[in-house]
Amino acid sequence: MSARPAEAAVGHIPSNTSGEEVVLNDQRKQATKQIVYAIVENQRGVLHRISGMFRAKGFNITSISIGETSSPDLARMTIIPDGDDQALQLLVKQLEKMIDVIEVGTMAHEDAVARELALVKFETRDNKARNGILDLSNNLGAKAVDISKDSLVVEYTATPEKIDYFIIEASKSGAVKEIVRTGLTALRRGL
What we know:
By secondary structure, this protein is an alpha+beta fold.
């Protein structure tokens, strides 16, 4: 499960094919921030209680993702907070106080393997547009997961910066119709 609040900074990239603007999340700001992770009990209502705490304490979250771990009783949350070091410290302390939270920690981006999944739907009115997006996808390791007469859906798992690059470059061949992104998930490098 993932959330991207409306307050997240966005950038606008004009699409060459339709004149409409493509809206991307501005991930460049995240490069200097810490990644917060929490191991929580995998039970009903945990995400609701934690997000309620974020709201009550006034934390702004750029990205949050959660998923089951190797133990079905536990889930791992990856949180990208928006704020300074003082806000980060307060967020960690508040998470540590919650009964459903087993472990909380932080990682610098350079110490983590961090990825995000994006599904991008393009309008492709001709073979030239479709082939341009497919060529770029193949070069970057993205994968076409749905191809129809006038559209193409591409799945791409990479860093947020690489996803932004892909969307900008691919929009030169076909108009971006929809984008959905999971939010960042990360693990610390090494043991």
